[in-house]
Amino acid sequence: MTGSATQGIKTVLHPVSDLATAKAVYAALLGVPPQTDESYYVGFEAAGQHIGLVPGGGPQGITSPVAYWHVPDIEAKLAEVIAAGATVKEPAHDVGGGRLVATVTDPDGNVLGLLQGR
Length: 118
Fold this sequence. Notes:
The chain has helices at 19-30, 74-83, and strands spanning 9-16, 36-38, 41-46, 49-55, 66-70, 87-96, 99-105, 111-116. It has a single domain (9-116), classed as 2,3-Dihydroxybiphenyl 1,2-Dioxygenase, domain 1. It is an alpha+beta fold. An eight-stranded mixed β-sheet has the order 2-3-4-1-5-8-7-6, with helices on one face.
């Protein structure tokens, strides 16, 4: 297999209907307060992972959590997974803080996230 290896799953985004309630639940679960606490996003750093809460089901209408594989070159990895049979759901775009994200679906419709940056 050619191409670049991922840096593992380090980010998982959970769509939530009530951001305040979800924030309390995840703070209790993770044992830490959120590092990012905005009306549009709440993010926690715990045990080397980033756990994010996205209100309203997320920008793509996501209804279940999406794990984001950290990659050094998002465009190269997108090309690799598309060539292997994945379909682009959300093209790579900047979400701020030097981070680029994209999502693809595997042949069974599972959503896979890619993240380049921190």
